[in-house]
Please model this.
Amino acid sequence: MLTNKSLIAPSDFTLEEIEELLSLSERIIQSPERYASVCRGKLMASLFYEPSTRTKFSFDAAMLRLGGNTLGFSDPNTSSTAKGETIADSARTIGKYADLIVVRHPKEGTAKLMSRYADCPVINAGDGGHHHPTQTLTDLLTIRHYKGDFGGLTVGVCGDLKFGRTIHSLVTCLARYENVRFLFISPEELTMPAFVKEELNANGVPYAETTDLEGTIDQLDVLYMSRVQRERFISEEEYLRLKDYFILTAEKMELAKPDMIVMHPLPRINEIATEVDNDPRAAYFEQVRYGMFVR
Ligand code: NCD
Model:
């Protein structure tokens, strides 16, 4: 039972619970009108200490379409944080008003900290370069739509694997399914962090690391692209040097399997050329739609 449970990382949910959520999302997609008032009288607080378009709007849209209400901020300068209030006190306070807190914060661990102090469940909408579990649920629903199942897939994740929280959440979650294999495609400066690799090693999940997208794209069933996370770099120079390292073009897509899908959590900067958008294998805008249903 998922009621009253916080969600900080995908590992907070068992595979059965994830299955329950994905099936429920599919039922909502089938007949949204049946769910139009299931959250009547409920209030969701969305606290965005970092910029967001899709995540914030999809949470808000989901709550409103389920008949509930939302309150919150997308500019922390308008909250008491600007006066120096601690996260713990903000959680204690907001938890007294709302039935659910959704929080995005630049600092790793913030959602977990809030969940210790709030009287209501907390959903992590992204904590620094750590985790982003509801994006993973979005990604799983998308993969299931296109591929039917998660087992047996070769999944390539490409771009900023060091700071990409959506990637950390997706890889650690998909690794729990049978027979999934990963290719980590990144510049040497942005390889997958140890906390992810250790988890894969401990569970005997196969992965390989490469700097070569063109030479490996033909092996993939799913290619998950990501932007270089400018806001997490200490040096702007380093960001500028790495930002155009991988650009997926129509020419590279010619090397891929005819049924490989391309995903991206968005926002895209320039790592996928717009010419790829019309390729039937481009799944990233459909992926956006699933985000609202899963949330
Ligand atoms: C991602 C995020 O915020 O981590 N965006 C999103 O939630 N869809 C990816 C990103 O910002 O690069």
User: Anything to note?
Assistant: Residues 54-55, 126, 132, 135, 165-166, 226-227, 265-267 surround N-carbamoyl-L-aspartate (CB under 6 Å). The longest strand covers residues 43-48. The two ends are 16 Å apart (CA to CA).
